[in-house]
Structure formats: structure tokens, C-alpha cells
Amino acid sequence: MAGNSFGTLYKLTSYGESHGVGVGGIIEGVTPGLELDMAFIQNELNRRRPGQSEITTPRDESDNVEFLSGVFEGKATGTPLAFLIRNKDQRSGDYGNLKDVYRPSHADYTYQTKYGIRDHRGGGRASARETIARVVAGAVAKLMLRPLGVIIQGYVSQVGNIKLEKSHTDMDLSMAETNIVRCPDANIAKKMISYIDTIRLDHDSVGGVVTCVASGVPVGLGEPVFDKLHSVLAHAMLSINAVKGFEYGSGFGAASMLGSQHNDEFIKEDGKIKARTNRSGGVQGGISNGEDIYFNVAFKPVATISKEQNTVDMHGNEVVMLAKGRHDPCVVPRAVPIVEAMTAMVLADAVLMNKTYK
Amino acid sequence: MAGNSFGTLYKLTSYGESHGVGVGGIIEGVTPGLELDMAFIQNELNRRRPGQSEITTPRDESDNVEFLSGVFEGKATGTPLAFLIRNKDQRSGDYGNLKDVYRPSHADYTYQTKYGIRDHRGGGRASARETIARVVAGAVAKLMLRPLGVIIQGYVSQVGNIKLEKSHTDMDLSMAETNIVRCPDANIAKKMISYIDTIRLDHDSVGGVVTCVASGVPVGLGEPVFDKLHSVLAHAMLSINAVKGFEYGSGFGAASMLGSQHNDEFIKEDGKIKARTNRSGGVQGGISNGEDIYFNVAFKPVATISKEQNTVDMHGNEVVMLAKGRHDPCVVPRAVPIVEAMTAMVLADAVLMNKTYK
Amino acid sequence: MAGNSFGTLYKLTSYGESHGVGVGGIIEGVTPGLELDMAFIQNELNRRRPGQSEITTPRDESDNVEFLSGVFEGKATGTPLAFLIRNKDQRSGDYGNLKDVYRPSHADYTYQTKYGIRDHRGGGRASARETIARVVAGAVAKLMLRPLGVIIQGYVSQVGNIKLEKSHTDMDLSMAETNIVRCPDANIAKKMISYIDTIRLDHDSVGGVVTCVASGVPVGLGEPVFDKLHSVLAHAMLSINAVKGFEYGSGFGAASMLGSQHNDEFIKEDGKIKARTNRSGGVQGGISNGEDIYFNVAFKPVATISKEQNTVDMHGNEVVMLAKGRHDPCVVPRAVPIVEAMTAMVLADAVLMNKTYK
Amino acid sequence: MAGNSFGTLYKLTSYGESHGVGVGGIIEGVTPGLELDMAFIQNELNRRRPGQSEITTPRDESDNVEFLSGVFEGKATGTPLAFLIRNKDQRSGDYGNLKDVYRPSHADYTYQTKYGIRDHRGGGRASARETIARVVAGAVAKLMLRPLGVIIQGYVSQVGNIKLEKSHTDMDLSMAETNIVRCPDANIAKKMISYIDTIRLDHDSVGGVVTCVASGVPVGLGEPVFDKLHSVLAHAMLSINAVKGFEYGSGFGAASMLGSQHNDEFIKEDGKIKARTNRSGGVQGGISNGEDIYFNVAFKPVATISKEQNTVDMHGNEVVMLAKGRHDPCVVPRAVPIVEAMTAMVLADAVLMNKTYK
Predict the structure, then answer these.
(1) Is the minimum CB–CB distance between C20 and chain B shorter than 8 Å?
(2) How many distinct structural domains can be found in chain D?
(3) Domain that holds residue B195
(4) ipTM score here?
(5) pLDDT (average), residues B308-314
(6) In this structure, what CATH number is given to the domain that contains residue D59?
(7) B69 — contact with chain C (CB < 8 Å)?
(8) How far is the alpha carbon of C260 from chain B, nearest alpha carbon, in Å?
(9) What residues in chain D have per-residue pLDDT under 50?
(10) Distance CA D173, CA C39 (A)
(11) Which one of B166, C153, C239, D15 has the largest count of C-beta atoms within 10 Å of its C-beta?
């Protein structure tokens, strides 16, 4: 209701602020008996972790997850899986001088107006630190999807004007994890890293695009009309901090195409019905058709930069502000596991929903 | 749950198939006492109506709405507002020859696989005829938003490669309703109409983009984290048939921008806090900031074309099919009222939710 | 949200008023492919129907259901099953004189205060005519439960001070349908009928109790903590007009029992685990244990009586009113199919939910 | 969905097991700016606390609540209020011998069958320890209701065959807190205490009834049809462990009454519309009418007794078991704050929902 939950059957309800006790959540819908691979879950958190490389924020949080319920002898019991990640490297002092300031393109003004009160330290609930809970729930969702053969792989396909033009079908996506910018093409990755470094030294930030591919998805996932699989994916992706756009399959490019060019013919291959091309992006009529689901997620440059900016404060005074908080020069490398996590949650939920028809 | 409802407090639950008895829905959350302006509601339906001009499908349905409950002496009572639009111009025969065929880029294959049964006539539940219910619920939402000063105006900003490059702030958007393609720039409109006509004569279809602007939106709408206002808008838009992408504010363009270019400075103007620029698209931290909310919605070319296509049938036989059903050469002119309707529903729901904080 | 829906996966959203166009609903969660036995559905409606015998209201409505969607060639398609029952025997004139009057123990005052507007004719949305939608959704739920071997049988166990003392295990419950008061014991039934007739002639009304038994329920239905199977049953039953109480298994009698008397020992019988006694009422820890689920539902005497009553009107004037509308002297015989319908909906929903764990 | 949440706008999602890390929850819908009176919240927990008197279980848990989010400088921020109460006095060893045993009238068998796995220690999720989360959420709800003048007072009205026959209107209900059995009549209280002591010494348990009264409730709370105020209260109460029945207003007694006896006449008093009598129990048509809301909740004797009992184990072997765990001889005194908490949650939720109509 109030925007703290995602999913219906596989569901995360999250809580927590940047500079409070911690962030966490309650996961429902975990298959009873599922082996909770704690090392895998922690590894997913590490992929999101600040301070993991020279191109991410130096804010250093080890982000160790404590499970509070729903596990017995290493297995999920089917009861709610609650977890908590305590905040550690809090420098609330960094934000003291911004207590009353409405930072440009941040949520300070809107939160204050909506609620009449806000935890101003580090963005409070609006901080991207909230995405930790998503990564935990996404990791558990991946464990649920694993036996079905679903593989979810995200990667960075654009940083500023540096674009990876290759299709996901022409690359080994697992190479994305071999460099700090998470781009599967080593050459492009090098350019991206070098560019981000320039941005960092200039105290600025830059946007980018994350592409995500889910393969091995069974046919039939997604609900018609209002909860089409791609609608829910769009909802999921746009809910990630700093996201400005979503397109799947042919995406915005479809606007300039003809039907005769765009349609995906069905064929029979190895006794199975397949699509010859995949402009549909693995979803037709809102329901997965067994082909790869792929989509792009556009991120704006993070609003926190270490440059002077003009703005106003709560009292309407014009002020010049300079953020002291540490920030990412480019958020997309760390956004990859978050995009994957949201994808995994959407698919796990759809899998559970689909069981009810049998 | 099963994708037939949209919204939480202002909520539409819809039903109906293309060639069944009709389509309709139940609207909840209508303010008790609201005057139901039936002429306005019917006019919105007429804007969506097939056969309204030479560039839309010749399928001719007058789409008269019958309200079944929730109205007393012309006013909403606060109880559910149910409605029904009976189907009339059904030519089920058009679809008989496609009974077993999986039409390319349609939902036939996925529905059949998901449910094991489907109403094959005209796409059944997957037909865009379903959007009638959205237009009715959107019209009622507009009536609720009217006293708040919210104005929602959509328009066609791209057809094929013909793009309207002007910003929404540089045009009189109401001009969109003065031509059949719904583009507010008369010159571009002419080119679009002429292009669509070529496509029609070639028995093909073409994609496009609808831009939508909501102005006068109060500050504070939208819920943090998972139900950010733009996430819900994205969900809403991607749930419309044939939509492939959504971007708001700076959108995909933000990916190549720097933070120092992108941030919207706050200023004080006439005693009110405003943003000097609006790359945020009227939403910050998921909550409306009072500036114009604007976004683009990409539509693929409709899958139904009157050309021969290769595909397979239910039994896996390769077949060559030729659709006899009447179709739109370009869906975007008729999509404008649907995009507006979904926007109105999202905002009305957010308005109701926001009342609970006071 | 606004009280018009019941259930989560198997879900009815209902609409309609006593003297409007009609009442109806949208059913979601119907198993795709389910044969919709229309004669059975109509028969369930006939069991609820006014005017079915001399001890029910003479208001005569044949209550024919029209399905608007979700059915194809006699089978459910998995898409929403919408339906409408048009109102026919409306004597709105009966209510004209009560336009401004707050009838004692009716919903006139509370609706008017909550909404600031109400359809005063025949109680509007608060009329028991709304239960028609429940009976339709319950009938479809029974069709879904039939292949699982679930049998739901309600009966009248009390009318005024006339009580049926026998346990449900000591009677042939199907005998309930052999008399107009729906009591499986012919002798008690006779007394009840004769008593109701006296009440009717005296222009009064009287309360009663409906008992309901669900047998053949699989082990494992119901969700822990807040949605225990019996909690949802209680919710369902108390939502029926005129219901004042609910108890299951040992019920209120349990308050005066000792644990050593009350506990149900587990035994092994024919290779299956069973309970030797069934004070648990077929539910333990909120989850069905395979034994009979049985419960009692207390109904107050209907508030509409044909006697003069003192009350006030909307303007605060004291008035003496005399209801002209036709009413049931005792509502419980017609409530039996409604209690069964709600039970079937609860169980069908639980069955669907339970599939998600496998 | 899976039974871990209660409420829609004011909502608790709870987690935790008897012998895991702890129990807790996430509360949504707390009014931003609400002063969180921590002493009051802790005091409510103390009222539920085991070991508070000689007639409760000697299991001694101090149950200190830690808030994890949603509070800033002592006030609620409007973001989710997460909390955790760590388990302390765990004697898992007490349960080792019962690992495989299906205890009579417990949830062991149903949980094991539903999930295929369970945390057998102390009942796991089915333990009444789960109700701690309810008491915290109820205490916060009481703080929200306080400025509206709503007062909720529960008390014990029956223990075994010892019944308090007086109406709630004839007693000073606050006296309930002056004795350990929480009965507002000192004489009856004495008898109840002495009786419970006998039961305790006999290693048995006994049932009882809690009555609860909410006064000062504004007119208009509750939603029609499926979410009538009393339906939601019934749902809430039946979700509490060991509850077997619920009745409000005239309750089961209404079954033997005539309409002419039962109807509550409206009168005008001090310029306000009131009901002369209150058999309606403060709710008409599912909506509060401003009179006292009162209801009874029946509890069975707790299933855990320190006597030998026959049962079977997971493998189907007949066994004789003797519970070593500490238990309450009569649960109703400690159930009073839980009943109140659920009532407060229901009313707070209804208050929020009602704001959406204005």
C-alpha cells in the first residue's frame, strides 16, 4: 500500500534508513525446504557493496546480513524470512550542514512536504542504501529460480556517451563480472572505467544504462492485462533509485519499425515451438514465451556531486551548498546486481502465481 | 493478483473479451457525491473508438457505456461503480480460419500454453478492446482530479521516423485534438497522417510514441521505494497493449549526462519553492514536486497486418497465414486517450493514498 | 480495500444495489478449463431466492444470472468471470416514505454519515440482495472443489428458542434440503416452520443459527498467524448481513472446558493419521487437519418488521415509521446457501494458495 | 497473502519463531510526526509478558523492543516502523524429546504436512510468542487513536464456569488492571484466581472469555459488504491463538430474539443522533454508529498440559507424551492486551481508510 512491499506471492517488505539502525526486510513466499546458500547471498551483497572498487563510493560498509526468522537448520521453513543489515560506516556529521537544505534533484523537498517530517541524514529512506534489502530478496529468489534453469545476467551497456553496441546474443555475458565496471566487452569496459575516473576527479557524476537478460524462463509467466510480465519488470526497474527509463525487446526502436519488419515468426525447432527472431523480448501478450527476456534500464547521473550548487533551504532562503557525503561517480556498475535482484523477484513471484493455474 | 485490477484505493477491476458479451469493469474509490458527467465519459470513449477516422481501423463500434451500480441521481454514491460496454460489430468469422494458428507477435501461443484453453476470437482477453474499460475508469478519475486543477494531455510525438522534436513546453498541447493523428504541431501532423496512409495502403503497420504531460499536480503524490509515482506510471503504461518502453523527464537521454548538467536547482518564485529546470520530470524520490510530469511511451507496430506471414499452428505445423481482421495501420492516435486514462487513474489513486497521511 | 472484494487468489469483487440496475460481480481464480455447470449455479441461486416458500419474503425475483466474460464454449478460460443479475421486482415506491428516515438497526444512518449520500431505496448496497453475487461465486467455487471431494452442507440448527441439539455427525445432513426451513431433523423442522409462521402473522421477525460442515477437506489449507483458516471463515461469515457471531469446533463451550478434556488425541487409522475426537473443528494452528470443519453462525432477527417503530429522520425529527417493504420473518433458511457459498469461496482460495508451496 | 500481514493502510507484517532469533514486525501507516511513547509501548508488552504473576507461565521473558527504523528524534517519520524483540529464555531442550511427536490439538501435524518442514522448538511460528508483534503494533495504534478519544478496554469475563454476568456498562472497566486475572469485579476475580490456581496445581489448563469494549469510536468506520467493521474484528480475534469464537453486540443471544425486541431505536439527545439501546454493538451495516463497540472472544484451554497424553509421532507410531515446556494454566489474563491490540489495529486501519472519502 505505502510502497514498502514488492510482489504478491514472492514478496519483500522492506524497512530502514541510511543512518538509522539498519536496513532489512521480510521475505514471504520462499519455498519451504529451500537450502539457503548464505555464501551466495553474501556474495550478491558484496557485488552491490560500496567501496568495492576505485570507481565506486569510498563509503565502506561490509553489509553483513543477519537472518532473524524463517530458517531452520539452514533451510527455509515457509514462514517469513526476516533479515537485518546494521548500518556501520555512518558519518551523520557529513549531513549536519545540509539539515535544512533541499538538495537539487534529491527527495528532501518532496519528503518534507509529503510527511511534514524527515530523517535528513543521508537521504533517510530515500537513500539507495535501501536497495540492500532488494539484493537479499533477489538472491533468495535466484536460489528459487536456479532449479528451473533460469539465469539472470545484467551488465553495463552505456556510461555517458560510451555505448556497447553489440547484442546480448553476441557476447559472453559472464565476462561482465571480470571487470569493475561490469561490461562484458573488455575494450569498452576499459573506456568506461577511464571515463568514470575522469568524472570522479572532476567531482561530477555521469549516467548510464544497465542491460539485463533472463534466459531459461519457462513459457507462461506473467498475468494478462494489468500485470503483464514486462509491466511488472518496468515497475520494478523504475522503483530503483535514479532510474529514468525502461525498454524491453525492440524498445523505443520499435516506434520507427513496420509490422512486417517487427513481427517474430513462430517456427518449430527440435520439436518445440520457438520464435525465429526475438523483437518481442521474450514476452507476448504480457506472458513469457520461452525466449530470452532482455531489457534496458536508464540511470541518471547521481544527484550528489562534490561541486557547489545553488538551491533553497526549508525556510525558502537561497543557499549555495556543497555536499560532503561520499558518492558514486557513476552508479551503474553497482546497479547491476540490483537490477538482477529485482528481475529475480519478479520472476519468482510469477512462477508462484503460475502454479495456481495447474 | 491475476492482473485484472489496477490501483489500490482508486481501483479498476476489468473484464471482457473482444468477441464475448462485452467488456467492462468495476471502479472503486470514486469520491461519494461526485457528479458523473456522462457526456464527458462518452466523449473519452469516442476518442478511443475504432473507426473514428480514415487512419484508424474500420471496425466500427459505438461503445456505449451502461453503468450498472454506484450511481444515484447522477452522483457517485461511494459504492462500486460497475459498467458494461456490449460488443456489437463482431465478425468472429474473420477469425475462424485462425482458430489454431499462432499469429506472430500475438498472445495466442502464450495464452494457450499458460491456460490450456483460450477464446481465439479476435485475441480474446488479449485484444486491445480491453482498453475500453481503462478509458471509462480514466474518465471518472479525470472528473475526480478536475477540482484539484490537474490537467492531463497526451499527444503523438513520433510515427515511424517522423518525430516531433519540440518540447511540450513550447507548444499548445490542446491543438493535438484538432487533427486525426493527435499531434499538436500541424505540419508534423500532416506528415504523420500522410505516412500512415501509405502504410495502410501497403497493408502494413508502423509504431510510434505518445508523450503525456500532467500539469497542476499537487506536491507529495507517490509512495517511496517500491511505489514511486513514476514506477506506477511505468507499470500503467507498459500494461497497455503494444507498449515497449517508458521514460520520464530526461529519460534515456539522462544516461549520457553529467550530474552538474542534470540537477534541477530549487528556486523561490512568487513565495513558492520551484525547480528552475525540470529534468526530474516532476517527480523526485518517487514523489511529485509540483512541476509538470511528462513522459514518453513507445508503441510497436501492431502485430496484425494484412500481409502473408509464416508461422506455426497449435499442432506444430508450419503454415502461411493472412489475417482478415480489420486493424489500425498505426495505433498511437487512438492510444492517446488510453495513455491519459492510465495517467489519470495513477494520479487519482495517489491523491486518495496521500489523504491518509493528514 | 473498500470492502467489495473477498478472497485473494479465488476472488469475488461484487457490485450492485437493491433497486439499481442489478447486482453482480467479477470472479477471478477460476481454474482454466473448468466446466461451468450452469444448471447447478442457477439451482444455488434458487436456494437463496426470495419467494421460494411461505416462510420467506414474498418479494419475487427469479434472479437469472448472465455471464459477461470468461466463458468459452461452456468452460472457464482463466480470465475474469463477470456476471450480472438484473433487478426485476422492484417496488421502489415502498421506500419513498422512508427516504429521510433512519430505520432502527439498519444501515441508513451509518451510510449517510460515512458517505454523505446514499441510495435509500431498499437499503441500497446494504441490502441483503447483495448476497446474490456471493451465491454465484460460491457455486463456481463448489464446482472447483468437487473433484477434490470436498462437500459443504449447511443447515438451520436454531430458530428462536427452538434448537437442534444433535451433533452434525449424528444426522443425514442432506435431509436439510427436504424441508423449507432447511433443518435435517424432520420433527424439529416442523416446529421451526410452525413458529416462523406465527412470527410472520405477528408482523415480527426472529433470529436463528446456521451450522455448516465441510467434509473431505484436504490437510494443509489455511495460512498461519493472521489468515488462519478459521479466521478467514469468521471474516466471511460475519460479512453476511445480520450475522452476530461465529464459533467453530468446541466454540464458546471451550471456555468452560479443561485442556485434558478438550485436546484431540492423534491416532493412526487405516494407515492415516486422524484425530480421535474433533473439538478442534478440523483446524489446528489455523490449518486444516483433514477432519470435518464445522461451525455455527448466529443471525439476529431481521431489522425490517411490519410494526410501528419510533426513530428519527435525517433532520433529527422524531418519527413513527411503519415499513411497507416485504421481508423475511426469519432469514436463516435462505441464509444456508449463502453460508455455504462463503465457505466454498474460502476453501477454494485456500486450495489455490496452497498450490504455491509445492 | 501468506498470512503474515494484518491490515491494509495501518498494517503489521510480522515474523519470528518461539525459539529462533526473535520475533518482530514492520508497521506501516503510522501517522508521520506521531510521538512514539516508548514507555507506553513497553508497558503494553509487560501486560502480555509471561511470568507476570503466579497464574501465568513461569517462562520469563522481559521482551524489550528495539525499533530498527521509521523513528527520528522520538517521532514516527511515516516510513516503515520495524522492530525486533530478541528471544532470551529459550529452553529448546524442553522440546527435544518432542521433536517427532505430533502434540494433541497443536499445530505440529498440520505445519509438517503443509510445509514438509517445521521448526519444532516450542511450536515455532505457531507459538503464541508471535503475539508480541501484535502488542507492539497495537500499542502504536492506540497512540494514533488517543487524540480521537477512542478508549479500548478488555477484561476477563469468564474462566471455566465462573462467569461475570454484569454488562460492561455497569462496571468500572479500568478495575480490570487491578488484579492478576484482569476481571473488573473484585469478587469474581478472586474466584477466578483461586480456580486457576487449582487447575495449575493439577497440571491442567482451562478456557475462558475475554470481553472488549471500544468507546469513543467516531461514526463511519468500516467498509460495507466484505470488510464490515465487525467482520474484520472477527478475523482479527479468531487469528489469536486458541480463540474458538467471536460474538458482538447481542451475539449468539440474538438468535432467540424477536425483531421487535432487538431493534435499537434512534433518538436525538443533546442535538446528536444516538441509539436508545445498543444490541447492534456499535456497528450497523458494518459501519460504526458511535455507540460502544463490544464483543466477546472465547478461548479454549491451552493445549499444552503437564499430563501424559496419547498421540502419534511423525512416523505414525503411537506414543505417550509428557510436555516439559512451561505453560499458562489459563491464557485469558494475558490475552486481554492482545485482544485490545488487535482491536486498536482494526480501528486505526479503519480511521485511515475513512480519510480517503473526504
Answers:
(1) yes
(2) 1
(3) 5-357
(4) 0.97
(5) 94
(6) 3.60.150.10
(7) yes
(8) 44
(9) none
(10) 55
(11) D15
